[in-house]
């Protein structure tokens, strides 16, 4: 952390947003606030990162979180531009809380071009002629292994029925170790005497 002003503002933010689940402290200089419910078209996750000279220099404002993927580019641009303007007006003062609250008050006007539903505002992906050139035949070093023949349900059932007919009790071929060793007798090695 660069200075005492930042430390003091950090303590103030923690006391204000202590029980607020929408606020998240990312690091000593990074703070996030979620406006709106997840899955709603007009929900926004606003991230403010302090620069080393903050509050005498404007903080970095970001909407690049994955949470904001549904926002239209022009809406993101408008929000960032307006927040930067507010930051310039508040230079020299602790402004993170001020920026969060200013966005809360002006959220409707900033998101007027944004759709209420996420599916309507999601950017469209357009695929063009490149699909004609795709082929799986040209894969280098692809080892083709012959697959096993898959059995049908009837074939599996018939196989399992055969296994059940000649079922032997568990351990039918186990060797009794003690009995086996007693039958074998002890083999004495040369040079050893039985005592």
TrEMBL record:
Residues 8-110 form the RWD domain. SUPFAM superfamilies: UBC-like (SSF54495). CDD domains: RWD-RWDD4. Residues 134-156 are annotated as: Disordered. This is RWD domain-containing protein. Pfam families: RWD (PF05773). InterPro entries: RWD_dom (IPR006575), RWDD4 (IPR042770), UBQ-conjugating_enzyme/RWD (IPR016135). It comes from Darwinula stevensoni. Gene3D superfamilies: Ubiquitin Conjugating Enzyme (3.10.110.10).
């Amino acid at each position: 952390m660069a200075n005492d002003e930042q430390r003091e503002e950090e303590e103030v933010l923690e006391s204000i947003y202590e029980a607020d689940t929408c606020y998240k402290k990312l690091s000593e200089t990074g703070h996030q606030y979620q406006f709106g419910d997840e899955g709603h078209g007009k929900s926004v996750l606003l991230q403010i990162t302090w620069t080393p000279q903050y509050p005498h220099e404007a903080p970095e404002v970001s909407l690049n979180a994955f949470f904001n993927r549904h926002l239209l580019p022009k809406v993101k641009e408008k929000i960032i531009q307006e927040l930067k303007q507010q930051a310039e007006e508040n230079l020299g003062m602790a402004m993170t809380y001020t920026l969060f609250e200013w966005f809360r008050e002006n959220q409707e006007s900033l998101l007027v071009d944004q759709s209420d539903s996420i599916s309507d505002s999601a950017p469209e992906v357009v695929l063009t002629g490149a699909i004609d050139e795709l082929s799986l035949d040209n894969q280098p070093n692809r080892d083709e292994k012959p697959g096993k023949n898959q059995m049908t349900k009837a074939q599996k059932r018939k196989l399992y029925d055969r296994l059940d007919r000649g079922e032997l009790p568990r351990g039918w071929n186990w060797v009794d170790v003690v009995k086996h060793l007693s039958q074998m007798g002890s083999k004495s090695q040369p040079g050893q005497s039985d005592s």
